[in-house]
Write a structure and sequence with these properties.
Pfam families: Cu-oxidase (PF00394), Cu-oxidase_2 (PF07731), Cu-oxidase_3 (PF07732)
Mean pLDDT: 89
Bound molecules: CU-O-CU linkage, copper (II) ion
Domain Plastocyanin-like: 46-154, 193-272, 364-459
Keywords: Metal-binding, Oxidoreductase, Signal
CATH topology of the largest domain: Immunoglobulin-like
Helix content: under 10%
Radius of gyration: 21 Å
Structural class: mainly beta
Protein name: Multicopper oxidase family protein
Number of helices: 4
InterPro entries: Cu-oxidase-like_N, Cu-oxidase_2nd, Cu-oxidase_C, Cu-oxidase_fam, Cu_oxidase_CS, Cu_oxidase_Cu_BS, Cupredoxin, TAT_signal
Low-confidence stretches: 1-28
Oligomer: single chain
Length: 459
């Protein structure tokens, strides 16, 4: 496998990253169509060579689906892959039947021509994403991911509102995707790649106007890589985490850390010197640095005045957990290399456990980790007893991050995916929602596939 490349940034006039916005169909304002099929795209370098991927509507990532808060989203899906699939709407508080979990909330959408209609209301504004929930590691690793942007009723005024979908690929010298399914990846950090793309492109010049205000909706659609984005001399403000508003603030250490599955919305004002670079670095691996996007300034300012300080965006109608009355639960993460992984587990293809239990992909045999009552508040202490990072995701709910290693967090975030560092304890709280079995799993998809998944049963 080739070593990670440090791609030279393309200088000069580059095309804007094309947002493939799917037009709404006539007569049905919020109906979208996703055709899932193999495709060939130039991943490693613009202009070729082509890499065989799996795509939504022919491209990677899939189209940015844009809708409005309060609207009903309808998506017709057609599966032309050689394998069954589903679509999971990551972070959206969907009804249980629309959650896209095979064998649990729906039957898989059959290979070679299967169809499925998803239709649900959008209670929250924000940045969400969609991806398969069957053979997740391979399916997402082959490119299946796209951003879902739900506009607020009163959107924040910006000059441009852009989704930046980050994908990490393991590509061979022949520009093919390396084989999937190694147990070594599953028992360590997951499938880390050697090419990072932003909206499907490995390196790009991105033209901006001086004084332009951008809203960047970062989506980590990689199966394993935890990014830390740096914007060099630019000073971005974080305005939302996993879609939900937070008081605008500068990211700690000027780095935006983004675990698999997570999203961060940023305001970036194009001030300062032209030619600012947005770089991604691997959070935790100093050898990995990757110049990703070169913001090329048009010095002619977009307007006379500077944009005013951004005001906080309106909160989503999330149920606030009652911390006084919340019932405590524990979610203990164990296993993995240099940890509790035993020979016996490895023999079964299992590398990880949650509270001593583990489930395979496919969700036939998911273990119930806890039974919760709809409407009640819960505090869950996530204890990472492993040597690895785990972005823990709960379906159908949004939770508050309360403490890390017992210390209250400075700025409580709403999230659907919490990044838990090795040996760290993270406490979250939420109100149990619609009755049903809701998946909780690690969003390092190779970990999920090797046992790190279970259910919260809401009765
Ligand atoms: Cu984004 Cu259960 O997944
Ligand atoms: Cu994990």
């Amino acid at each position: 496998m080739p070593a990670p490349t440090r791609r030279a940034l393309l200088a000069g006039a580059g095309a804007l990253a094309a947002m493939r916005v799917l037009p709404a169909r006539a007569g049905s304002p919020a109906a979208h169509r996703l055709v899932i099929a193999p495709a060939e795209v130039p991943l490693v370098a613009p202009g070729g060579p082509d890499t065989a991927v799996w795509s939504y509507n022919g491209g990677v990532p899939g189209p940015v689906i844009r809708a409005r808060q309060g609207e009903r989203l309808q998506v017709e899906v057609e599966n032309h892959l050689p394998v069954d699939t589903t679509v999971h709407w990551h972070g959206v508080r969907v009804p249980h039947a629309m959650d896209g979990v095979p064998h649990l909330t729906q039957a898989p959408i059959p290979a070679r021509g299967g169809r499925h209609l998803y239709a649900f209301d959008l209670p929250d504004a924000g940045t969400f994403w969609y991806h398969p929930h069957l053979l997740s590691g391979e399916a997402v690793g082959r490119g299946l991911a796209g951003a879902l942007v739900v506009e607020a009723r009163e959107p924040l005024q910006v000059d441009r509102d852009l989704a930046w979908v980050l994908q990490d690929w393991r590509v061979t010298r022949e520009a093919a995707l390396a084989p999937f399914g190694g147990f070594h990846d599953a028992a360590h950090a997951g499938r880390l790649g050697n090419v990072v793309t932003l909206n499907g492109s490995a390196a790009e010049a991105f033209a901006v106007r001086s004084r332009e205000r951008l809203r960047l909706r970062l989506v980590n659609a990689s199966s394993a890589r935890v990014y830390a984005l740096e914007f060099r001399e630019l000073a971005p403000l974080v305005i939302a985490t996993d879609g939900h508003p937070i008081e605008p603030h500068a990211p700690e250490g000027r780095r935006v850390v983004l675990g698999p599955g997570q999203r961060t919305d940023l305001i970036v004002d194009c001030l300062g010197d032209p030619g600012a670079v947005a770089a991604v670095v691997d959070h935790g691996d100093p050898r990995f640095a990757y110049g990703l996007v070169n913001l090329v300034y048009d010095p002619d300012p977009i307007r006379e005045e500077y944009a005013p300080a951004p005001t906080p965006i309106a909160p989503n109608p999330l149920p606030a957990p009652d911390l006084g009355a919340a019932e405590p639960l524990v979610l203990r993460l164990e296993g993995g290399a240099m940890g509790g992984l035993t020979r016996e587990m490895a023999g079964r293809g299992v590398a990880w456990t949650l509270n001593g239990l583990s489930a395979h992909e496919g969700h036939h045999d998911h273990a119930v980790l806890a039974t919760l009552r709809s409407g009640r508040s819960y505090r869950v202490e996530i204890i990472n007893d492993t040597a690895w990072r785990h972005p823990m995701h709960l379906h159908g709910h949004v939770f508050r991050v309360l403490t890390r290693n017992g210390v209250p967090v400075a700025r409580p975030e709403w999230r659907d995916t919490a990044l838990v560092e090795p040996r760290e304890r993270v406490e979250i709280a939420f109100v149990a929602g619609e009755p049903g079995d809701w998946v909780v799993h690690c969003h390092v998809l190779e970990h999920q596939g090797a046992g790190m998944a279970g259910l919260f049963r809401i009765a």
